[in-house]
Amino acid sequence: MADFTSLVLRLDALRQHLAGTLRDKGVATTDEETLASLVDKVALVDSTSGMNQIRNGYQLFRGNTTMSVFPEFDTASFDSMYQMCYGCTALERVPTLDTSNVANMMYAFYGCTNLQEIGGLDTSRITSASEMFHGCKNLRKIGGRLDFSKVTSKIDTTFVSCSALETVIIDGPVDADIAVNGCPKLTVESLVFLLNALSDTGNGKTCNIGAKNLAKLNAIQKAIATDKGWTLT
Predict the structure, then answer these.
(1) DSSP 167
(2) What pLDDT, in 10s, does the model give residues 143-185?
Protein backbone atom coordinates (compact mmCIF):
# COMPACT_ATOMS: atom_id res chain seq x y z
CA MET A 1 0.00 0.00 0.00
CA ALA A 2 1.33 3.45 -0.97
CA ASP A 3 2.59 5.71 1.81
CA PHE A 4 1.15 9.23 1.36
CA THR A 5 2.64 10.59 4.57
CA SER A 6 5.13 12.82 2.79
CA LEU A 7 2.48 14.27 0.46
CA VAL A 8 0.09 14.93 3.35
CA LEU A 9 2.81 16.77 5.25
CA ARG A 10 3.64 18.94 2.26
CA LEU A 11 -0.01 19.81 1.69
CA ASP A 12 -0.42 20.71 5.34
CA ALA A 13 2.63 22.96 5.17
CA LEU A 14 1.08 24.65 2.12
CA ARG A 15 -2.21 25.05 4.00
CA GLN A 16 -0.46 26.70 6.94
CA HIS A 17 1.53 29.01 4.67
CA LEU A 18 -1.62 30.10 2.80
CA ALA A 19 -3.46 30.68 6.06
CA GLY A 20 -0.63 32.86 7.35
CA THR A 21 -0.47 34.86 4.13
CA LEU A 22 -4.23 35.49 4.19
CA ARG A 23 -4.06 36.66 7.81
CA ASP A 24 -1.25 39.05 6.86
CA LYS A 25 -3.56 40.47 4.19
CA GLY A 26 -6.36 41.06 6.71
CA VAL A 27 -8.48 37.95 6.01
CA ALA A 28 -9.69 36.02 9.06
CA THR A 29 -8.79 32.31 9.10
CA THR A 30 -8.88 29.46 11.61
CA ASP A 31 -6.46 26.63 12.24
CA GLU A 32 -9.14 24.09 11.34
CA GLU A 33 -9.75 25.33 7.80
CA THR A 34 -9.04 23.07 4.85
CA LEU A 35 -6.79 24.01 1.95
CA ALA A 36 -9.86 24.27 -0.28
CA SER A 37 -11.64 26.72 2.04
CA LEU A 38 -8.52 28.86 2.25
CA VAL A 39 -8.23 29.00 -1.54
CA ASP A 40 -11.83 30.26 -1.67
CA LYS A 41 -10.85 33.11 0.66
CA VAL A 42 -8.15 34.42 -1.67
CA ALA A 43 -10.85 36.50 -3.39
CA LEU A 44 -11.44 38.32 -0.08
CA VAL A 45 -7.99 39.89 -0.11
CA ASP A 46 -8.42 43.68 -0.22
CA SER A 47 -7.73 45.12 -3.65
CA THR A 48 -5.10 47.43 -2.18
CA SER A 49 -3.00 44.36 -1.53
CA GLY A 50 -2.86 43.72 -5.26
CA MET A 51 -1.14 45.97 -7.79
CA ASN A 52 -0.62 48.73 -5.25
CA GLN A 53 1.57 46.45 -3.15
CA ILE A 54 4.06 45.69 -5.93
CA ARG A 55 7.45 46.74 -4.66
CA ASN A 56 9.53 46.39 -7.81
CA GLY A 57 9.12 46.92 -11.52
CA TYR A 58 11.81 44.38 -12.47
CA GLN A 59 10.53 42.66 -15.64
CA LEU A 60 7.00 43.38 -14.35
CA PHE A 61 5.22 43.30 -17.72
CA ARG A 62 8.01 41.83 -19.85
CA GLY A 63 6.67 40.24 -23.01
CA ASN A 64 3.05 41.31 -22.45
CA THR A 65 1.65 41.73 -25.97
CA THR A 66 -1.96 42.61 -25.03
CA MET A 67 -1.64 45.51 -22.54
CA SER A 68 -2.33 48.79 -24.38
CA VAL A 69 -2.43 51.17 -21.39
CA PHE A 70 -0.15 51.05 -18.37
CA PRO A 71 -2.34 50.20 -15.33
CA GLU A 72 -2.85 52.82 -12.65
CA PHE A 73 -1.12 51.90 -9.40
CA ASP A 74 1.43 53.30 -6.99
CA THR A 75 5.01 53.00 -8.25
CA ALA A 76 6.59 55.14 -5.51
CA SER A 77 8.26 52.14 -3.89
CA PHE A 78 9.91 50.90 -7.09
CA ASP A 79 13.70 50.81 -7.01
CA SER A 80 14.07 49.05 -10.37
CA MET A 81 12.34 49.21 -13.73
CA TYR A 82 14.80 46.90 -15.48
CA GLN A 83 13.01 45.46 -18.55
CA MET A 84 9.70 46.51 -16.96
CA CYS A 85 7.83 46.81 -20.27
CA TYR A 86 10.36 44.99 -22.47
CA GLY A 87 8.65 43.87 -25.66
CA CYS A 88 5.19 45.20 -24.72
CA THR A 89 4.23 45.67 -28.35
CA ALA A 90 0.59 46.66 -27.68
CA LEU A 91 1.42 49.35 -25.12
CA GLU A 92 0.36 52.79 -26.37
CA ARG A 93 0.42 55.11 -23.37
CA VAL A 94 2.17 55.39 -20.03
CA PRO A 95 1.01 58.01 -17.49
CA THR A 96 3.31 60.09 -15.33
CA LEU A 97 4.90 57.62 -12.92
CA ASP A 98 6.43 58.27 -9.51
CA THR A 99 9.86 56.78 -10.14
CA SER A 100 11.80 58.93 -7.70
CA ASN A 101 13.37 55.86 -6.07
CA VAL A 102 14.22 53.97 -9.25
CA ALA A 103 17.93 53.46 -9.82
CA ASN A 104 17.76 51.10 -12.80
CA MET A 105 15.72 51.82 -15.95
CA MET A 106 17.79 49.82 -18.42
CA TYR A 107 15.60 48.34 -21.19
CA ALA A 108 12.49 49.74 -19.42
CA PHE A 109 10.51 50.27 -22.64
CA TYR A 110 12.69 48.38 -25.09
CA GLY A 111 10.76 47.26 -28.15
CA CYS A 112 7.48 49.00 -27.26
CA THR A 113 6.79 49.58 -30.93
CA ASN A 114 3.30 51.06 -30.48
CA LEU A 115 4.11 53.32 -27.52
CA GLN A 116 3.10 56.89 -28.41
CA GLU A 117 3.40 58.95 -25.25
CA ILE A 118 4.87 58.83 -21.75
CA GLY A 119 3.49 61.31 -19.24
CA GLY A 120 6.73 61.64 -17.31
CA LEU A 121 9.48 59.74 -15.47
CA ASP A 122 11.74 60.78 -12.61
CA THR A 123 15.18 59.63 -13.74
CA SER A 124 17.19 61.59 -11.19
CA ARG A 125 18.64 58.45 -9.53
CA ILE A 126 19.54 56.31 -12.53
CA THR A 127 23.17 55.70 -13.42
CA SER A 128 22.54 54.01 -16.78
CA ALA A 129 19.99 54.87 -19.45
CA SER A 130 20.98 52.04 -21.78
CA GLU A 131 18.29 50.88 -24.21
CA MET A 132 15.49 52.64 -22.30
CA PHE A 133 13.42 53.53 -25.36
CA HIS A 134 15.23 51.45 -27.99
CA GLY A 135 12.87 50.62 -30.82
CA CYS A 136 9.98 52.85 -29.69
CA LYS A 137 9.38 53.90 -33.27
CA ASN A 138 5.97 55.52 -32.63
CA LEU A 139 6.91 57.40 -29.46
CA ARG A 140 6.19 61.08 -30.09
CA LYS A 141 6.43 62.69 -26.66
CA ILE A 142 8.07 62.08 -23.28
CA GLY A 143 6.61 64.49 -20.74
CA GLY A 144 8.38 66.11 -17.82
CA ARG A 145 12.17 66.10 -17.76
CA LEU A 146 14.63 63.25 -18.15
CA ASP A 147 17.33 64.01 -15.59
CA PHE A 148 20.53 62.28 -16.69
CA SER A 149 22.80 64.04 -14.19
CA LYS A 150 23.81 60.80 -12.43
CA VAL A 151 24.24 58.72 -15.59
CA THR A 152 27.86 57.62 -15.96
CA SER A 153 27.62 55.21 -18.89
CA LYS A 154 27.19 56.32 -22.49
CA ILE A 155 23.70 57.48 -23.46
CA ASP A 156 24.12 56.27 -27.02
CA THR A 157 21.55 53.45 -27.11
CA THR A 158 18.77 55.15 -25.17
CA PHE A 159 16.87 56.54 -28.16
CA VAL A 160 17.82 54.13 -30.94
CA SER A 161 15.11 54.02 -33.66
CA CYS A 162 12.85 56.55 -31.91
CA SER A 163 12.08 57.91 -35.36
CA ALA A 164 8.81 59.67 -34.40
CA LEU A 165 10.07 61.36 -31.24
CA GLU A 166 9.47 65.10 -31.32
CA THR A 167 9.38 66.29 -27.73
CA VAL A 168 11.70 65.37 -24.88
CA ILE A 169 13.39 67.61 -22.34
CA ILE A 170 16.75 66.24 -21.28
CA ASP A 171 18.17 67.69 -18.08
CA GLY A 172 21.65 67.45 -16.70
CA PRO A 173 24.42 68.11 -16.38
CA VAL A 174 24.97 65.32 -18.89
CA ASP A 175 28.57 64.13 -18.63
CA ALA A 176 28.60 61.10 -20.94
CA ASP A 177 28.55 60.63 -24.71
CA ILE A 178 24.96 60.96 -25.85
CA ALA A 179 23.19 60.19 -29.13
CA VAL A 180 19.76 61.18 -30.42
CA ASN A 181 20.56 60.71 -34.08
CA GLY A 182 17.81 58.07 -34.19
CA CYS A 183 15.27 60.85 -33.54
CA PRO A 184 15.28 63.01 -36.70
CA LYS A 185 11.96 64.71 -35.83
CA LEU A 186 13.08 66.36 -32.60
CA THR A 187 11.95 69.95 -32.26
CA VAL A 188 14.51 72.73 -32.09
CA GLU A 189 13.34 73.39 -28.53
CA SER A 190 14.12 69.80 -27.51
CA LEU A 191 17.52 69.98 -29.19
CA VAL A 192 18.42 73.24 -27.44
CA PHE A 193 17.38 71.78 -24.08
CA LEU A 194 19.78 68.90 -24.75
CA LEU A 195 22.67 71.18 -25.68
CA ASN A 196 22.13 73.29 -22.58
CA ALA A 197 22.09 70.14 -20.45
CA LEU A 198 25.57 69.11 -21.59
CA SER A 199 28.20 69.53 -18.90
CA ASP A 200 30.62 72.46 -19.03
CA THR A 201 33.56 70.06 -19.22
CA GLY A 202 32.96 68.28 -22.53
CA ASN A 203 36.65 67.55 -23.15
CA GLY A 204 35.95 65.90 -26.49
CA LYS A 205 32.83 63.99 -25.48
CA THR A 206 30.38 63.50 -28.33
CA CYS A 207 26.80 64.65 -28.71
CA ASN A 208 25.48 62.93 -31.82
CA ILE A 209 22.21 64.51 -32.94
CA GLY A 210 22.38 63.40 -36.57
CA ALA A 211 22.51 65.35 -39.81
CA LYS A 212 18.79 66.17 -39.98
CA ASN A 213 18.74 67.63 -36.48
CA LEU A 214 22.04 69.42 -37.02
CA ALA A 215 20.55 71.19 -40.04
CA LYS A 216 17.79 72.67 -37.85
CA LEU A 217 20.25 74.58 -35.66
CA ASN A 218 21.91 77.90 -36.30
CA ALA A 219 25.53 78.68 -35.49
CA ILE A 220 24.72 80.20 -32.09
CA GLN A 221 22.76 77.13 -31.04
CA LYS A 222 25.51 74.75 -32.16
CA ALA A 223 28.03 76.79 -30.19
CA ILE A 224 26.17 75.97 -26.97
CA ALA A 225 27.79 72.53 -27.22
CA THR A 226 31.07 73.26 -28.93
CA ASP A 227 31.95 76.16 -26.61
CA LYS A 228 31.82 73.66 -23.74
CA GLY A 229 34.26 71.33 -25.44
CA TRP A 230 31.75 68.88 -26.89
CA THR A 231 31.99 67.38 -30.37
CA LEU A 232 28.64 67.94 -32.06
CA THR A 233 27.79 65.62 -34.92
Answers:
(1) E
(2) 999 999 999 999 999 999 999 999 999 999 999 999 999 999 9
Torsional sign, CA 108, 160, 173, 129? positive
- Structure letter (DSSP) for residue 140: -
For residue 134, give the nearest of 166, 97, 103, 179 by alpha carbon: 179
| Distance between CA atoms of residues 231 and 32, nearest Å | 73
Residues 6+ apart with CB under 8 A from 172: 147, 148, 149, 196, 197, 198, 199
From residue 38, alpha-carbon distances to 19, 21, 49, 211 in Å are: 7, 10, 17, 64
- pLDDT tens column, 16-48: 877 777 676 666 778 788 877 776 666 555 444
**Cis amide leading into 173 (omega within 30):** yes
> How far, in whole angstroms, is CA 127 from its chain's centroid?
13
Question: What letter represents residue 46's amino acid?
Answer: D
CA pair distance 60, 81, nearest whole angstrom: 8
Phi then psi for 189, rounded to 5 degrees? -60, -45
